[in-house]
């Protein structure tokens, strides 16, 4: 069952502290909102993702989602005075879309999710979708198992029965037309979308939630989420190797840095053999092919192209999957020119393109002891290793 999703990110999140709302704070090196959006975008039957933000947070949202170049991600929508108003703004944005050759029609099912729940397991989403095949609404929840007490002034006063009580989570799912009509008829705030649905007479099924699907609320919740992410982290390593022969020319470009030499490198692009190796290492870490597949040498538009274009695409693909490049190591193999005097500039250039710290980039050189084509001075080889962490 295909679905659209709304991520509600218009709140202020003051209890979490920090200089910015909690959805824009960093969680294991990535903004919370980005993790939540990437989690939903990873679902194979999602068709549209609408993020609803506070009117003052446009720049924060842009920075948080920068690089998530997925056509399913809609431009952010400004929310209202309360959560119900914000969700209604997202619903109206979805129904305003008209399917055409460029935009897929919005499906009849929508999931509404809190931005501050970035660790939602796939099975929680799938259970909600399964329930929507039968009921007009679905709510992931966990049964209350602890004893409940009312109290005042720090003292327990009376027990309360816990039978039949559930801890509500998101995403809460609905048939789009039904929940839109319910929101249009509703006035004032509401605890969640199930409250609005029930007020409109909609049946809402309870599906299995998950303990890790908690809502980041207080400062200590970030530490809890980071511990869970450590257990789920997908660490990838990719390798790249490239070779280019020499030709007559005034020098070579390696890792984006011009190195004076009595020869140049031959290639369809600018023949930056080192940057090509790094690029292939990143594509390899993602298992997304290589430079030749993304930028075929048979296409004239890549003739003489700067290799920075290729490396930026590889970095973009990492970002699109909400990943992080944590380390790049490149070894350049040649008898000449001397690489050492230029290695720091090469590290800085790679770090700039990849938007990572310079201390996460290594560039070094070796010779082949005058053996083989590099030893005979016929060209330059390069090999690289890249480490990528995916959520």
From TrEMBL:
4-CDP-2-C-methyl-D-erythritol 2-phosphate binds at residues 242-244, 268-269, 290-292, 366-369, 373, 376. Residues 235-388 form the 2-C-methyl-D-erythritol 2,4-cyclodiphosphate synthase domain. Signal peptide: none annotated. GO terms for molecular function: 2-C-methyl-D-erythritol 2,4-cyclodiphosphate synthase activity; 2-C-methyl-D-erythritol 4-phosphate cytidylyltransferase activity; metal ion binding. It holds the Pfam family IspD. Pathway: Isoprenoid biosynthesis; isopentenyl diphosphate biosynthesis via DXP pathway; isopentenyl diphosphate from 1-deoxy-D-xylulose 5-phosphate: step 4/6; Isoprenoid biosynthesis; isopentenyl diphosphate biosynthesis via DXP pathway; isopentenyl diphosphate from 1-deoxy-D-xylulose 5-phosphate: step 2/6. It catalyses: 2-C-methyl-D-erythritol 4-phosphate + CTP + H(+) = 4-CDP-2-C-methyl-D-erythritol + diphosphate; 4-CDP-2-C-methyl-D-erythritol 2-phosphate = 2-C-methyl-D-erythritol 2,4-cyclic diphosphate + CMP. Residues 1-235 are annotated as: 2-C-methyl-D-erythritol 4-phosphate cytidylyltransferase. It comes from the Bacteria. Residues 236-391 are annotated as: 2-C-methyl-D-erythritol 2,4-cyclodiphosphate synthase. The record marks 15, 22, 268, 367 as: Transition state stabilizer. CDD domains: CDP-ME_synthetase (cd02516), MECDP_synthase (cd00554). The record marks 162, 215 as: Positions MEP for the nucleophilic attack. Its EC number is 2.7.7.60, 4.6.1.12. The keyword Glycosyltransferase does not apply. Its cofactor is a divalent metal cation. GO terms for biological process: isopentenyl diphosphate biosynthetic process, methylerythritol 4-phosphate pathway; terpenoid biosynthetic process. A divalent metal cation binds at residues 242, 244, 276. Keywords: Isoprene biosynthesis, Lyase, Metal-binding, Multifunctional enzyme, Nucleotidyltransferase, Transferase. In the N-terminal section; belongs to the IspD/TarI cytidylyltransferase family. IspD subfamily. Bifunctional enzyme that catalyzes the formation of 4-diphosphocytidyl-2-C-methyl-D-erythritol from CTP and 2-C-methyl-D-erythritol 4-phosphate (MEP) (IspD), and catalyzes the conversion of 4-diphosphocytidyl-2-C-methyl-D-erythritol 2-phosphate (CDP-ME2P) to 2-C-methyl-D-erythritol 2,4-cyclodiphosphate (ME-CPP) with a corresponding release of cytidine 5-monophosphate (CMP) (IspF). NCBIfam families: ispF (TIGR00151), PRK09382.1 (NF006899). This is Bifunctional enzyme IspD/IspF. The lineage of its organism: Bacteria, Pseudomonadati, Pseudomonadota, Alphaproteobacteria, Rhodobacterales. The gene is ispDF.
């Amino acid at each position: 069952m295909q679905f659209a999703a709304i991520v509600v990110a218009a709140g202020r999140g003051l209890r979490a502290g920090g200089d910015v709302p909690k959805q824009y704070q960093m969680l294991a090196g990535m903004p919370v909102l980005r993790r939540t959006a990437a989690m939903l975008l990873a679902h194979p039957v999602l068709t549209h993702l609408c993020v609803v933000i506070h009117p003052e947070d446009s720049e924060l949202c842009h920075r948080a989602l920068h690089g998530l170049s997925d056509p399913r991600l809609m431009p952010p929508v400004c929310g209202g005075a309360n959560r119900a108003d914000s969700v209604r703004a997202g619903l109206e944005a979805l129904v305003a879309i008209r399917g055409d050759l460029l935009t897929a029609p919005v499906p009849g099912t929508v999931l509404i999710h809190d931005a501050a729940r970035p660790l939602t397991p796939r099975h929680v989403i799938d259970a909600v979708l399964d329930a929507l095949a039968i009921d007009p609404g679905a709510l992931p929840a966990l049964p209350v198992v602890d004893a409940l007490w009312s109290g005042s002034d720090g003292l327990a006063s009376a027990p309360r029965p816990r039978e039949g009580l559930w801890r509500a989570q998101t995403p809460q799912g609905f048939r789009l037309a039904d929940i839109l009509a319910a929101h249009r008829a509703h006035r004032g705030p509401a605890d969640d979308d199930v409250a609005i649905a029930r007020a409109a007479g909609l049946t809402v099924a309870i599906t299995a939630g998950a303990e890790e699907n908690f809502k980041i609320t207080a400062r200590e919740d970030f530490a809890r989420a980071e511990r869970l992410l450590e257990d789920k982290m997908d660490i990838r390593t990719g390798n790249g190797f490239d070779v280019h022969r020499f030709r007559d020319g005034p020098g070579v470009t390696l890792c984006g840095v011009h190195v004076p030499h009595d020869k140049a490198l031959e290639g369809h692009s600018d023949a930056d053999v080192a940057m090509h190796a790094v690029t292939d290492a990143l594509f390899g870490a993602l298992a997304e092919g290589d430079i030749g597949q993304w930028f075929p040498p048979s296409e004239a538009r890549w003739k003489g192209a700067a290799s920075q274009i290729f490396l930026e695409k590889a970095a973009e693909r990492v970002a699109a999957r909400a990943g992080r490049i944590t380390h790049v190591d490149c070894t350049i193999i040649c008898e000449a020119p001397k690489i050492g005097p230029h290695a720091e500039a090469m590290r800085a250039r790679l770090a700039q393109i990849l938007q990572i710290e310079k201390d996460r980039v290594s560039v070094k050189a070796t010779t082949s002891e005058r053996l083989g084509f590099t030893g005979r001075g016929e060209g330059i080889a390069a090999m690289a290793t890249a480490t990528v962490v995916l959520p």
